[in-house]
Amino acid sequence: MPITLRPALPTDVAALWALRTVAVRVSCATHYAPEQIAVWTASPVPPAYATMLAAGGGIVAMQDQAIAGYAMLDVIKHEVDAVFVDPARAGLGIGKHLLAALEQLARGRGIGRLHLSASLNAVPFYTAAGFTALREEAYTHPSGISLACVAMEKALAAA
Description:
This protein is about 35% helix and about 35% strand. It is α+β, with helices and mostly antiparallel strands. The strands form 2 sheets. Strands 1-2-3-4 form a 4-stranded antiparallel beta sheet, sandwiched between helices. A 3-stranded antiparallel beta sheet has the order 5-7-6. Helix 1 (about 15-25) runs antiparallel to helix 2 (about 35-40).
């Protein structure tokens, strides 16, 4: 099935958050404790999602009329906020397409460098996409738990 990308819409938020919750439960289980994942996935949609969508920072991957994944760019912070793929569609290159589209969006906004906090399971994905690990960190999740992650960045080539 072909993959098409489109801008994320405010009406997509509930479906995106549901996909993110499943992706965290499945993909992060190899690197985080069940207790951490339970708290992490119980959190509500952050208010920043509406801001990122309003700024045009959300991209949805569609496959067979279903949301297969999504990515969020914080154009103010120059940060990749999220790249999530439906675990049932893992390995099809959807995350790679989404990240490339975010990079193109960033370049179009004059952003020359992106940064992110990668979950431990996502570090190989971002490394393969050209991001460089800067340091290991503890991300304080809005729920209050601390999650080990890796701060990464990538200089973007000119458009």
